[in-house]
Amino acid sequence: MSYAIIGFGKIGHALARAFARNGIEVAVATTRDPESFAADAAAIGPTIIPKPLAEAVKADTLFLAVRFESHPEVAKALPDWEGKTIIDAMNTQAPLEELDGLPSSAFVAKAFTGARLVKGFNHLVAAVLDRDPAVHGGRRVVFLASDNDGAAAEVGTLAENLGFAPIQLGGLSEGGLLVQARGKVWGRLIFKDLVKFD
Ligand SMILES: NC(=O)c1ccc[n+]([C@@H]2O[C@H](COP(=O)([O-])OP(=O)(O)OC[C@H]3O[C@@H](n4cnc5c(N)ncnc54)[C@H](OP(=O)(O)O)[C@@H]3O)[C@@H](O)[C@H]2O)c1
Q1: Which residue has its alpha carbon closest to ligand 1 atom 21?
Q2: Which residues make Cβ contacts (< 8 Å) with residue 147, sequence separation at least 6?
Q3: Which pTM was predicted?
Q4: C-alpha distances in angstroms, 44 versus 70, 132, 150, 165?
Q5: What are the distances in angstroms from CA 192 to CA 59, 103, 178?
Q6: From 29, 94, 101, 184, which residue has the greatest number of CB atoms within 10 Å?
Q7: DSSP class of 59
Q8: Is 148 close to ligand 1, i.e. is its CB under 6 Å away?
Q9: Per 3-state DSSP, what percentage of the chain is helix, strand, and coil (rounded to 5)?
């Protein structure tokens, strides 16, 4: 399984640090030449590999860590996303009318034709997601929601491998709304920094 983080800002850095902490290789990409953020990636760890976007999208599983308005541009990087898993870590200010009345991640799924979409890793501020998820003998919770149970389970395993405790919330229109931050309407689980003790 290969991984990529699209967007290397605050959330991209936090995710990259989780991969580095666990020695898991991940490509990182932005609109810029990878040379321009190579030193930044190297400072996080040797498993963080800067790539051009066109190369990074070859990964099996990709985190979307760009501003919501940039996701249609990312979607153009491939003619179709069959066989890929997209993890939507984005939140949006867009009003409901601009999202065709859909949950924000269902709207994103339409842009990435053929992909299996999982909403997740979006409910915490970047500074908290950035921290080591091992807390007082427990693990920081990340919430996952998807209309594809298989994809949700796979991303759950990835979340565990990154040191987090995944909690599955069900479909995008059900549990997904609990972690949807859209405009000034915040799902009830947004910003809830929870720790799970097994
Ligand atoms: N910040 C938070 O606390 C937080 C918390 C939860 C969720 N989120 C969500 O996470 C997402 C990212 O937030 P952020 O704070 O990390 O934003 P950010 O710091 O502005 O980073 C955005 C990144 O996306 C890259 N980018 C922009 N357009 C791109 C494109 N077309 N293709 C590839 N890369 C592109 C930017 O790089 P270049 O412009 O240099 O190409 C930059 O590295 C947002 O949707 C936000 O709502 C943020």
Answers
A1: 9
A2: 106, 109, 117, 171, 172
A3: 0.98
A4: 25, 13, 31, 22
A5: 30, 20, 11
A6: 29
A7: S
A8: no
A9: 35, 25, 40
Q: What is the mean pLDDT of residues 63-85?
A: 98
Residues sharing a CB contact under 8 Å with residue 41, sequence separation 6 or more, in sequence order: 8, 16, 28, 48, 49, 50
pLDDT tens-digit series, residues 59-69 = 999 999 999 99
Beta strands in the chain (DSSP E): 3-6, 26-29, 48-50, 61-64, 85-88, 116-120, 134-135, 138-146, 165-168, 181-182, 185-186, 195-196
Q: What distance in Å separates the CA atoms of residue 92 and residue 64, rounded to the nearest whole number?
A: 13
Contact predicate 141/196, CB 8 Å: yes
Predicted pLDDT of residue 94: 85
Q: Is the pLDDT of residue 39 over 80?
A: yes
Residue 165 near residue 141 (C-beta atoms within 8 A): yes
Q: Give the count of domains, the chain.
A: 1
Q: 121: domain range?
A: 3-196
For the Cβ of 126 lying below 6 angstroms from any atom of ligand 1, the answer is yes
Whether residue 56 has its Cβ less than 6 Å from ligand 1: no
CATH number of the domain residue 15 falls in: 3.40.50.720
* Ligand 1 mean position, distance from CA 10 (Å): 7
CB atoms < 10 A from the CB of 101, how many?
Answer: 9
Centre of ligand 1 to C-alpha 65, Å, is: 5
pLDDT averaged over the chain? Answer: 96
